[in-house]
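User: Here's a structure from my thesis project, written as structure tokens. My advisor, Dr. K., wants to see whether a designed sequence matches the one we expressed. Can you design one independently, without my sequence as a hint?
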């Protein structure tokens, strides 16, 4: 393996205002440790309590969804890996992005669900959230990307954004962005 050009990587991170980046398998303990690092970083940045809670909540929701999806599929650690990036945009807002491998057959429905939420205004999102809260939940049944995703859409400063890149092996890479 050749030497990684860390200077170029650092320059890219600085240009894109990336505060935190992780790429690899997401374990429960790792999600917790990265979450602690994120909280500490935001405290040092003097982020407001509400901003810190929103960013932390978005990070937890996205990473837990990825972890739960991989577990439902029975995937091993390599298949359960993800890329998570937390950055600031030009307006100083926090951008939480996460991506992971999904079965290609699952991707379009997930993409459609995120895009449907992105098309809703705040009043529609509030109504959708209340509707989802009233839905009966069956014990042990995972609905996946439900109430938490709607809540993210409600709190986001801009509509949720996602993309799906189909891979050669019958899978796809799903990416999602939340601006807080």
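Assistant: Designed independently from the structure alone:
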């Amino acid at each position: 393996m050749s030497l990684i050009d860390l200077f170029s990587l650092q320059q890219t991170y600085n240009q894109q205002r990336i505060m935190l980046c992780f790429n690899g398998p997401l374990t429960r303990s790792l999600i917790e440790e990265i979450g602690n690092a994120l909280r500490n970083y935001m405290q040092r940045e003097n982020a407001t309590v509400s901003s810190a809670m929103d960013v932390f909540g978005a990070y937890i929701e996205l990473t837990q969804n990825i972890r739960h999806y991989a577990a439902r599929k029975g995937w091993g650690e390599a298949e359960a890996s993800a890329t998570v990036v937390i950055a600031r945009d030009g307006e100083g807002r926090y951008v939480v992005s996460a991506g992971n491998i999904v079965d290609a057959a699952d991707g379009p429905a997930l993409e459609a669900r995120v895009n449907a939420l992105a098309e809703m205004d705040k009043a529609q999102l509030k109504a959708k959230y209340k509707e989802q809260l009233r839905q009966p939940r069956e014990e042990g049944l995972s609905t996946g990307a439900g109430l938490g995703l709607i809540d993210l859409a409600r709190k986001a400063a801009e509509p949720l954004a996602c993309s799906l890149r189909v891979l050669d092996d019958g899978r796809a890479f799903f990416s999602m962005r939340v601006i807080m």
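When you compare it with your expressed construct, this may help: The beta strands are 18-25, 81-88, 94-103, 161-166, 171-179.
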